Structure formats: structure tokens, C-alpha cells
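User: I'm putting together notes for a lab meeting next week and I want to include a structural view of one of the chains we've been expressing. I don't have a solved structure, so I'd like a prediction I can at least talk through. The sequence is below, exactly as it appears in our construct file.
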Amino acid sequence: MLELKDVTISYKNRPTVKNFNLSLEQGKICSIVGESGSGKTTVIRAVLGLLAGGGKVTEGDILFEGKSLLKNTREEWRKLRGTDISMIFQDSGAMTNQTRVIGKQFVEYIRTHEDISKKDAWDKGIKMLERMRLPSGDNIMKSYPFQLSGGMRQRVGIAMAMTFQPKLLLADEPTSALDVTTQAQIVRQMMELRDEYKTSIIVVTHNLGVAAYMSDFIVVMKDGEIVDAGGRDHILHRSESEYTKGLLDAVPSLGGVRYV
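Assistant: Thanks for the context. Below is the predicted structure for the 260-residue chain, given as C-alpha cells.
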């Protein structure tokens, strides 16, 4: 479904991500892990054509269902984003307009991609919120983002991202701003979405525990390059990379047992 071939991403002609390769099948979950500044978010922003600050893919190609995304026109990107490919941000509440209620933003988002009435879009928004286990979807729609908890805002972000049942979901640190209990709930819901819709997911995270729990495949990045990659079992138990071993050793243990 998605393939990144020897992708190099540069800012002002200086490579920040070098020779990145990834092949993702339908219904699979891949985690990209690594320390801050390793290039994780840059990779998924490149997939969605949202590189900020003049960033460009200067080498390689990004293929989605066999078609190069690098050749997309502005109109092709408009049709693709939010439908076949969606993104969840680190704090979905920070990505919404704090002066407008959730419902108005949700309705606008739906009507951008679908020719339906405001009432039908409102009802569709409520349905998606309740599917994300948010109680009283109508009240959520009438709320401002700052009136919701971090976990509720993140569920709103996931509900919006999943409205059109995307084939590919990109998640940028979707749990880092949440408490541990809410993190677990969000991770389980994302996995349920994969099971229900066969959605492929790429998760950017610095949390190896999250990656270990939900991923089929893990990519480890450092300084803009892949230093390790493989199936979950390989990365957790058979990796020969000293950097990966260091990340694993940094995971907290309880009673001498490390739960990854």
C-alpha cells in the first residue's frame, strides 16, 4: 500500500532524513521510534505532503497504492488528505480553533470532502464521536476544545481522522500528552480501528512500550537515519543494534521486570 524508497528529505539543501526505506501492507501497524530530533515526524509529514519551512523530498520516491505522491497536484492533495490518508497530531486540541465549537469545525471538515447538508454532517460527526466512546456526542459537538480533557480532545481528533475510513492513518505522538490510563485507551482504540476498517497505521513515538504493544513492524531512527528495523519480536528480543538495546534498557522496569 505505502512504500518509501530511498527517501532523503532536506531543508535548505541540508539533508535531515537520509535514505529512508519502508514498505507497509494493508492493515499493518508500523511504529517509528527514536529520540527527539531523529526525523520521525519529518517522515510522516513528507508522506502527507505537509513538510514545513521549505522542506523537500530531494531524493527517492513515496508511493501510495503504486502512485507517486510527489507528483500530486494541489487539487489531488486536497482530495487525498482526510479521506484516503488522515493524520492524528500530538495534541489534537492544539490543532483546532479554540474560538469555535467542535461541531462547527467537524461539520466544515466533513462538508469539505462530502456533498451533504449541515444537519447530516452534524449527525455524522455525533456518530463518529460516539464510536470513539465519547459520551453525549451532541454535547461534545457544542463544546469548545478548551472545555475538553486531553483524552477527550485526542478522541475528537481520531474521530475526525477516521470519518472517511482512511486506508492510511498517520499518528504523530498520539499518546505523549496523556496520562498512562488514557494512553492505554487511545492505543486500544487505534488497534480496534485497524481491526474494524483494515486501516494501515504509522505511529511516531518515543515510547517503546507503546510501539511494542501495538506494532507489527518497528523502525528505529537516529540522526535522520534508520539504525534498526524489523518485526516486533526481532526488535525487542534479537536486535544487534547497540542503540536499540540502549532504548530498551531505558524502559522503566517494575520489580525487576521490563514490560516490553
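A couple of points you could mention at the meeting. The mean pLDDT is 90. The CA atoms of residues 120 and 248 lie 48 Å apart.

User: Perfect, that's what I needed.
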